[in-house]
């Protein structure tokens, strides 16, 4: 009989056509689906180049992008490894193939092992081969030639179950992996080689022969069992004068004699060879499919809570949980390893490149947590934020981020304590959260104080030097040539000086460029530190004899009050932060022109100090759900929100791919706005959302029985003082009277066109009747729902109903609108806030405030959004006016500018920008166990 020829060329062609068609179909569902193979070739061996061209040609036919990266033979191993590692991290590359052989000075094992397992489309990496060898193993890829062999057997209709299969050859490339595949197909496998005794007898008993021994025509027909299936993997060149090349390609099997015995046989060439390339392309497509599937596989494994009654202290609760390694959490939510920068075991920074990688995704659902007008004890917004995130992420199957501000160490060691949440709804480890974290606030402090030093120094040098020497020192000659520093370009442009050669400036241009001529009385920039040090509120600088009498009255602020912190919160990328830092106005010149950070030449240096601070910090809740902790602008005079970048990043992480069901799969980002809705929420919308372009899906207003009783006429509450009995006993009349405050906040929130849910933060003294009153009043005021939540005592479990309410509200239609546009006057914008948000009858500007507004408008800053700094204890400017007062006049004492951050802030109260320490500050309770290193006493 004559064997049926298994035509590998034709089968490979069909496979390439099928791959091309499959890719086109997938691209209809997701246009981003584009498999890419990257081939690395070192040197220019002609045979390697021929093989590469074959792969490129086949890839083109299959609609697979194929990139060739060629390196000179002299490339060093570290250089080559670096490029491979970068390809491993490139999400657009789905397969990496190192074309062998490589030069002898390179370690082949080291180089090929450097390819990521999930991109090892050749299938020869340690993990892939190891998994293939295991029974039930899960390799990412099957080596191409062995995979091609199995496809050829399948195409020939060979049922391998129970068959005797002989593999002739034991190489790692063909023999060994083929034997694993045959075994997994339930064949009885014998691996033979050139040293095997009784080889002919083994072959004679074989139903299937895979020849890969590397000897031309080695297997003869009379060695084979009639009807055997022969797959010839051999690639041998023998002399042939009839060929142009002087040689021809033959296999390991004598084709003429074997084809008379076998039932099926592969020719050489035209058998296994074309299949190897086809299987390579098949692996690339499989890799692409897996890559896209991995992007969708975001599943959080919750940490169990072991609840105790009564609830222990926050630090005890935090310490009772064993947090996940931060690398594990990052993997669960789909943050790639190269995007993660761990700081120890439980916190990490996330690189902004993630935003580019996930740019195509639809954003997840966006929730902002605000509150009613609080008492000095706080009403639990941070705790509620964590509770909602834990409920959604750990109990309701929605990937959810909590996004919160980084706390200042001032309150931590002062009277307020930390800001990690509380009870069983908090960020952990809470000591790491409250102390330093990754050093962002220290970076802010360094940047702020560098600028303060630069301002003083510039004035000193301008006051002690003439124009010529001053200019020469500002633009010194280096190697005999003077060049403007890049940071000087904005100032040259601002002055209308188009010259690029410093030597070409006229004397007048030199004077204008070199002299900022700062008016010391107009300097607004103050030094900062992250400590509540009241004695630095007012200081004199320049008192040393070396300063030649150039003294000035100034002071310190808390670090989080720095405009640098506000810029960190409002920047949309590194370039935006650089622009904003350079645009900060620190003073006016004596001629009335604004003097910026870039005029001084410090914008680049400040950006360098804050380069790492712009990356959000990843932590976790008690139940192992993700938290971004980033930025912490002082809520008294700034936006009081966490960063835009953290929100944007989280919304992409929890968002959906183009081919996913958004309604079913979209996760949530739950962020918090400082103080009540009318302060933090108003700024969130009119400043943060205006800058980010993001629109929330739900507003959550946190309410407590205690605070509403205060607004209903209950006695004042003071930190450290015993609570009056009215707050511990049922009193629905006082409570109902106080609900006017809740109703006003709901009304204010709804004016932005966003659904509102009221979260009733449960206290142990609350009664069912009191909860019913709040719910009744909230729904009557227009809230979608008002839901009792016991997350402080029960974690996410206690907020499940609240989480469900948030999900339901997020599906409601929105009609988003801002409170004001930027075209009117500054006064009109402030009046809109005062009248519509606070309930004021009028807004009154002091002479100083009006003068400042006129100056800012003249300088070109009249179209900025507004932040009103006032008491957080009343809807009005007066902390004693509780409930929902009306008819009052808001006094605007001063108006200041944060030009880089992009807003004006109007002072309606005397705001301390650096708090003081109380008689018994928090640091008295803090200590370290010197045996374990554990920190005690934080709260």
Automatic annotation (TrEMBL):
Listed pathway(s): One-carbon metabolism; tetrahydrofolate interconversion
Documented EC number(s): 1.5.1.5, 3.5.4.9, 6.3.4.3
GO molecular function per UniProt: ATP binding; formate-tetrahydrofolate ligase activity; methenyltetrahydrofolate cyclohydrolase activity; methylenetetrahydrofolate dehydrogenase (NADP+) activity
Domain of life: Eukaryota
Listed GO CC annotations: cytosol
GO biological-process terms attached to the record: 10-formyltetrahydrofolate biosynthetic process; folic acid metabolic process; methionine metabolic process; purine nucleotide biosynthetic process; tetrahydrofolate interconversion
Subcellular localization: Cytoplasm
Span of domain Tetrahydrofolate dehydrogenase/cyclohydrolase NAD(P)-binding: 143-289
Record bears the keyword Phosphoprotein: no
Short name of one Pfam family: THF_DHG_CYH_C
Keyword Nucleotide-binding tagged: yes
Catalytic activity: (6S)-5,6,7,8-tetrahydrofolate + formate + ATP = (6R)-10-formyltetrahydrofolate + ADP + phosphate
Residue span, Tetrahydrofolate dehydrogenase/cyclohydrolase catalytic domain: 6-122
Keywords: ATP-binding, Cytoplasm, Hydrolase, Ligase, Multifunctional enzyme, NADP, Nucleotide-binding, One-carbon metabolism, Oxidoreductase, Purine biosynthesis
Family in the record: In the N-terminal section; belongs to the tetrahydrofolate dehydrogenase/cyclohydrolase family.
HAMAP family: FTHFS (MF_01543), THF_DHG_CYH (MF_01576)
Subunit structure: Homodimer.
Protein's UniProt name: C-1-tetrahydrofolate synthase, cytoplasmic
Highest classification ranks of the organism: Eukaryota, Fungi, Dikarya, Ascomycota, Pezizomycotina
């Amino acid at each position: 009989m004559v064997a049926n020829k298994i035509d590998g060329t034709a089968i490979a062609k069909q496979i390439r056509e099928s791959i091309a068609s499959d890719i086109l179909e997938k691209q209809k569902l997701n246009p981003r689906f584009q498999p890419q193979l990257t081939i690395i070739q070192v040197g220019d061996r002609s045979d390697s180049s021929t093989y590469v061209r074959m792969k490129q040609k086949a890839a083109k036919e299959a609609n697979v992008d194929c990139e060739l990266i060629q390196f000179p033979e002299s490339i060093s191993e570290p250089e080559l490894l670096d490029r491979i590692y970068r390809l491993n991290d490139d999400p657009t590359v789905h397969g990496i193939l190192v074309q062998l052989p490589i030069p002898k000075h390179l370690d082949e094992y080291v180089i090929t092992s450097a390819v990521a397992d999930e991109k090892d489309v050749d299938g020869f990496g340690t993990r892939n081969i190891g998994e293939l060898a295991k029974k039930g193993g899960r390799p990412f890829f099957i080596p191409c030639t062995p995979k091609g062999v199995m496809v050829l057997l399948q195409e020939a209709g060979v049922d391998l179950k129970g068959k005797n299969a002989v593999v002739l050859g034991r190489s790692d490339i063909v023999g060994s992996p083929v034997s694993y595949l045959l075994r997994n197909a339930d064949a009885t496998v014998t691996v033979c080689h050139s040293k095997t005794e009784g080889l002919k007898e083994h072959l004679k008993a074989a139903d299937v022969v895979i020849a890969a021994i590397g000897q031309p025509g080695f297997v003869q027909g009379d060695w084979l069992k009639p009807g055997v299936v022969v797959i010839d993997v051999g690639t041998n060149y023998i002399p042939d004068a009839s060929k142009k090349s002087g040689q021809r390609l033959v296999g390991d099997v004598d084709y003429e004699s074997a084809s008379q015995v076998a039932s099926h046989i592969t020719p050489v060439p035209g058998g296994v060879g074309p299949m190897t390339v086809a299987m390579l392309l098949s692996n690339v497509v499989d890799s692409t499919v897996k890559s896209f599937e991995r992007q969708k596989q975001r599943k959080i494994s919750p940490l169990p809570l072991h609840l105790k009654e009564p609830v222990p202290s926050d630090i005890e609760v935090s310490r009772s949980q064993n947090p996940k390694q931060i690398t594990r959490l990052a993997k669960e939510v789909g943050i790639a390893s190269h995007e993660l920068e761990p700081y120890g075991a439980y916190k990490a920074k996330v690189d902004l490149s993630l935003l580019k990688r996930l740019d195509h995704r639809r954003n997840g659902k966006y929730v902002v947590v605000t509150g009613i007008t609080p008492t000095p004890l706080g009403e639990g917004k941070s705790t509620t934020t964590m509770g909602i995130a834990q409920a959604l992420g750990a109990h309701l199957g929605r990937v959810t981020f909590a996004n919160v501000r980084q706390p200042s160490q001032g309150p931590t060691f002062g009277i307020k304590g930390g800001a990690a949440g509380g009870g069983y709804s908090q960020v952990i480890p809470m000591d790491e959260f409250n102390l330093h974290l990754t050093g962002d606030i220290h970076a802010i402090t360094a940047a702020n104080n560098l600028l303060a030093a630069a301002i003083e120094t510039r004035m000193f040098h301008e006051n002690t030097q003439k124009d010529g020497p001053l200019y020469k020192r500002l633009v010194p000659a280096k190697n005999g040539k003077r060049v403007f520093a890049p940071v000087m370009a904005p100032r040259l442009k601002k002055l209308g000086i188009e010259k690029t050669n410093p030597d070409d400036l006229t004397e007048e241009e030199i004077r204008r460029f070199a002299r900022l001529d700062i008016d010391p009385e107009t300097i607004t920039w103050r030094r900062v530190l992250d400590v509540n040090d009241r004695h630095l509120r007012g200081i004199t600088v320049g008192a040393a004899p070396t300063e030649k009498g150039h003294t000035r009255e100034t002071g310190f602020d808390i670090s989080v009050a720095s405009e640098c912190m506000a810029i960190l919160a409002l920047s949309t990328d590194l370039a935006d932060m650089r622009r904003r830092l350079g645009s900060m106005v620190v003073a006016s010149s004596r001629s009335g022109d604004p003097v910026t950070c870039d005029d001084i030449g410090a914008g680049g240096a400040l950006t360098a100090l804050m380069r790492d601070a712009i990356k959000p910090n990843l932590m976790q809740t008690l139940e192992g759900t993700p938290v971004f902790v980033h930025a912490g602008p002082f809520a008294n005079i700034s936006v009081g929100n966490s960063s835009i970048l953290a929100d944007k990043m989280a919304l992409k992480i929890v968002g959906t791919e183009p081919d996913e069901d958004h309604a079913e799969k979209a996760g949530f980002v739950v962020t918090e706005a400082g103080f009540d809705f009318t302060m933090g929420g108003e700024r969130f919308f009119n400043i943060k959302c205006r800058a980010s372009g993001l629109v929330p899906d739900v507003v959550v207003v946190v309410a407590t029985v205690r605070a509403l009783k205060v607004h209903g006429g209950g006695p004042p509450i003071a930190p450290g003082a015993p609570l009056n009995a009215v707050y511990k006993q049922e009193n629905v009349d006082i409570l109902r009277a106080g609900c006017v405050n809740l109703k006003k906040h709901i009304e204010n929130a709804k004016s932005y066109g966003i659904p509102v849910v009221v979260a009733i933060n449960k206290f142990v003294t609350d009664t069912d009747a009191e909860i019913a009153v709040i719910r009744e009043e909230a729904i009557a005021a227009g809230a979608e729902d008002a839901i009792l939540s016991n997350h402080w005592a029960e974690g996410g479990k206690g907020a499940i109903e609240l989480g469900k309410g948030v999900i339901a509200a997020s599906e409601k239609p929105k009609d988003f609108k801002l409170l004001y546009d930027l075209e009117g006057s500054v006064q009109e914008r402030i009046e809109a806030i005062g009248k519509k948000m606070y309930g004021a009858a009028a807004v009154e500007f002091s002479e100083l405030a009006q003068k400042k507004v006129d100056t800012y408008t003249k300088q070109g800053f009249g179209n900025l959004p507004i932040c009103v700094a006032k008491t957080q204890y009343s809807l009005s400017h007066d902390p004693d006016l509780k409930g929902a007062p009306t008819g009052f006049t808001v006094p605007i004492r001063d108006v200041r500018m944060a030009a880089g951050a992009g807003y004006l802030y109007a002072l309606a109260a005397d705001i301390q920008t650096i708090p003081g320490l109380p008689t018994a500050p928090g640091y008295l309770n803090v200590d370290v166990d010197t045996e374990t290193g554990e920190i005690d006493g934080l709260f």
